[in-house]
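Marked as duplicate of an earlier ticket. Keeping the data here for the record.
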Amino acid sequence: MNKEYKKILGAMAGARLAVIGDSMLDRFLWGTVDRISPEAPVPVVRILKETTKLGGAANVAANIRALGAEVILCGICGQDAVADQMARLLADKGMDAGTMTRCAGRPTTVKTRILAHNQQVVRTDHEVAEPVDQDTGEAILAALEAACPLDGIVLSDYGKGVLTPAVLGAVIALGAAQNVPMVVDPKQGDFSQYRGVTSLTPNQKETEQACAMVIDGADSLRLAGRLLLERTAAQAVLVTRGEDGMALFQSDGTEEHLPTRATRVFDVTGAGDTVIAVYTTALAAGSDFLSAASLANHAAGLAVRELGTATITSQQLGAALDRKEPA
């Protein structure tokens, strides 16, 4: 590992970041299939075990915490047993659920995946995705403001109602006033709503949808990257492309393509969370965009080796860098 990456990894431990967005619980039911149901042509899964992990914005926060940084998680959850379970999982990771706003009459979002022989059979979502009301939005913002000063802000938008236009505008204004990097993991919709953030980390499908175009080569990819930079006034856009790696476009006109670091892929669930966590924490620690993207690329290669959402520690990342230098 070269001195620059070693310096960034060391500085991550002193960073203080906030994650604001849609938190959820990821539940995994593991089992086997040995027959088809007599009631319908569907497999019967015999459940052998159940595991639960933090998902969405909460998983981003867990990834940041695993890097040694301090992290404040802002968002919503229900007044239910799932929220209590989320609070315990956050505590196990060294985070406080007290910065989350509990909403009566709105369940904590749960994604349940049923897997047989390590293959996902079906997923169920228990959620309410309507935008939060003004009072709830103000409570979320109050928790974020109380966390200042910060070194970086992640906006984790899963389209579940937390990042309303009012909340987005206030968060971007706060980040600008703090003069800290703000990075958004965007979802479907008009990316101009994120105008003013420092950087974005969309995947290729989200990029295609935002630009209303098909990316089928270097030229179309470059055009999409430039469109997003112009539309959001961001300093950089990092497009994640699965097996094709990542593409980094900066407002100064530079363009970098990073080949994938994944040697084995078991599950891509939560890989985007790992990318934005490492990328933003590196920027908060003083990294330039390319170095931050290279670190995130390595971390993603580690994350997809595990089934379900994964968190990558700075020690694991450092070991991966020692084995092979980033491109």
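See parent ticket for discussion. Residues 263-268 have pLDDT under 50 and may be disordered.
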